[in-house]
Structure formats: structure tokens, C-alpha cells
Amino acid sequence: MDEALLAAYRATAYRVRLARGGHAAIRIDQPLPLELHALAQACPWGFVTAWNPRSESTSRANNRLAQRALLAQLRALPETVAIRPGVGVAADGRWREPSLWVIGPTPATLDALAQRFDQFGYVHGDGASPAQLRLLPVAGQA
């Protein structure tokens, strides 16, 4: 992964839609926003997407199909406590990726899902701890 892409991931605002409107933005290396503490409690969580596999632009139709498949797989996990809609927003506002904030699955489980959808990584944490960028090998990458 090149440094520009890594910098873009680190600068992204990972926004979670709140039940009563608005959003809370998760930032890498910063604690989970207060608005999300009650939902996360002491559980592991992840901010994941199936959009734009390998960080390459993909058609809206294919992205939507992949995202629906990811949502179905997250819902089927017995450890899933909650799922909230989200969106990753570039620091410069040039792109947005619909995403999901999921509470309950472990990083090992989320690793497998992210790899299944050809994602380079995702953001995760445990309870209110600082958010971490978790980078993964993608099939076919050297």
C-alpha cells in the first residue's frame, strides 16, 4: 500500500449515524466518541465496508450488492450486538464510502469478512478505547 493511500485512511472521518439524527465521527488513534460509548460498552467493534474493493473505484450497483452481502453476513453472526449505518468521508471531501459500524465481532472475525470483500483494512476498537486502523493482506497482493 502506498503512503498516500495510508495517509488517506488515517485522515478519514468514519461517521456513524446516530439514532436521533446526526453522526459521531470516529478518528484513528482517538478514543471512541462519547455518543457511541453506551452502544459499544466494553465490546469489540469495527467500522467496515464492502465498497470499492482494493480501494479501486467500482460501480455503484456492484458496491451496493457487496454492501448488502456484508450486512447480511454481519447480521448472521451470533456475536453481533448492533449494527449502525456509517460513511467514511475523505478529509478533503472528494469521496464518501457507505460503511457499517458493527458491535460484537472480534477482529479475527472482521479480518475474515474484510478479506472476503477484498478490503485493505478497517477501523476497530474495544469499548471506548482509541480507534485503530487494521491493515490486511488482500488476495493476490505481494
Number of strands: 7
- Helical fraction: 25-40%
For the report, how would you describe the main beta sheet? 7 strands, antiparallel
What is the count of DSSP helices, taking H or I runs of 4+ residues?
4
Q: H/E element string? A: HEEHEHEEHEE
Low-confidence stretches: none
Strand order of the largest sheet: 2-1-4-5-3-6-7
Count of spatially separate domains: 1
Described by the principal axes of the CA atoms, the overall outline is globular
Provide the structure class.
alpha+beta
What does this structure look like?
- The protein has 142 residues and is α+β, with helices and mostly antiparallel strands.
- The chain has one domain (3-135).
- The chain is 30% helix and 28% strand.
- It contains four helices and seven strands; from the N terminus they run H-E-E-H-E-H-E-E-H-E-E.
- It has a seven-stranded antiparallel β-sheet, sandwiched between helices.
- The model has no long low-confidence stretch (mean pLDDT 93).
Structure characteristics:
seven-stranded antiparallel β-sheet, 7 strands, alpha+beta, DUF3293, DUF3293 domain-containing protein, 142 residues, 30% helix
Task: Please give the structural blueprint.
Layout (H helix, E strand, L loop, with lengths): L2 H9 L1 E5 L5 E4 L7 H7 L3 E5 L11 H17 L5 E8 L6 E8 L3 H10 L4 E6 L5 E4 L7
Antiparallel strand pairs: 1-2, 1-4, 3-5, 3-6, 4-5, 6-7
